[in-house]
Amino acid sequence: MLTADVLQSLLNHAKEDGLLQLLILCQHNQDFPILQYADDTLIFMEACDSQLFELKRLLQVFSVSTGLKVNYSKSTLVPINVDDQRTNALAQSFGCEVGSFPFTYLGLPLGVNKPKVIDCLPLVKKCEQRLSATSAFLLQAGRLEVTNSIFTALPMYFMSTFKLHKTVVKQIDKYRKHYLWRGSDINARSAPKAAWELVRLSKKEGGLGVLNLETHNDALLLKNLHNFFNRQDIPWVHLIWESYYNDGSLPSSSKRKGSFWWRDKISLSKHFFMMATRNI
């Protein structure tokens, strides 16, 4: 945490001295945009030679101050609306490779477009690997518990951020069904003992209580609308209010604005208003 504050402070001072420029001016926060988690760092800045040289100088100061070395050979420059020739020149000046969207950060595919099915393959493969690694000696009750606690839990992190593609949900459900009825043997072909629609019902309704991934995905995404409409002190909440609704208007599912990420969230606004209370 202390070393992260050092880099943030260096960038902020450079911004105040006019050596670095903010990409987006936000009223709520004037910090230079940077995301840091462990040894993964994202810095957002203009495609400007002078600013890039200043950043490299600051990283060298940071390295000397903290003893943490920056591995430029493992760093990438990912352009947004910058032509290839300029991108290659900037990357060569900085001493790093040129990257592209989508790229993985903290296990999630980040990009300007909605993740495709192929971008979710690591998640699908993780479920497949867990299928073969799970004990083959559990009884039916044990397999039900594993289905709920492991196979259903694996995509939770992804579903808290993105709307899962129907094809991905179908494939994960395939692994959940297979393990529940056939165990860890991927070649087993025994027939299921109940319809999947019945299995996903709650136990009070006569089902087995296996979560419906699509419904749970929507429920997890609705938390973002809760944060948004309650104007929680979160950077993305402030950014969207200032960028799209600073005239006092409210979001509408019929007039969606912004990135694919926000459009997916606002498409659930009708469901949110059905369960939320409003204080006027």
What kind of sheet is the major sheet? 2 strands, antiparallel
Number of helices: 12
Strands, count: 6
Question: What is the rounded distance between the termini?
Answer: 40 Å
Helix and strand composition category? mainly alpha
Fraction of residues in H or I helices: 40-55%
Uncertain stretches: none
Average pLDDT for all residues:
88
Lateral arrangement of strands in the main beta sheet: 1-2
Indicate the overall shape. globular
Q: Radius of gyration in whole Å, from Cα? A: 23 Å
Strand content: 5-15%
H/E element sequence: HEEHEHEEEHHHHHHHHH
Describe the protein's architecture and organization.
This protein is mainly alpha-helical. It is built from 12 helices and 6 strands. It has helices at 2-16, 49-66, 84-94, 121-133, 140-151, 156-159, 166-182, 196-199, 213-229, 235-244, 260-266, 269-275; strands spanning 34-37, 40-43, 76-77, 97-98, 103-105, 108-110. Strands 1-2 form a two-stranded antiparallel ribbon. Helix 1 (2-16) runs antiparallel to helix 2, helix 4 runs parallel beside helix 7 (166-182) and helix 5 (140-151) packs antiparallel against helix 7 (166-182). The model has no long low-confidence stretch (mean pLDDT 88).
Summary tags:
single chain, mainly alpha, 280 residues, two-stranded antiparallel sheet
Write the layout of secondary structure elements.
Layout: H1 2-16, E1 34-37, E2 40-43, H2 49-66, E3 76-77, H3 84-94, E4 97-98, E5 103-105, E6 108-110, H4 121-133, H5 140-151, H6 156-159, H7 166-182, H8 196-199, H9 213-229, H10 235-244, H11 260-266, H12 269-275
Parallel strand pairs: 3-4
Antiparallel strand pairs: 1-2, 5-6
Helix pairs in contact: 1-2, 4-7, 5-7
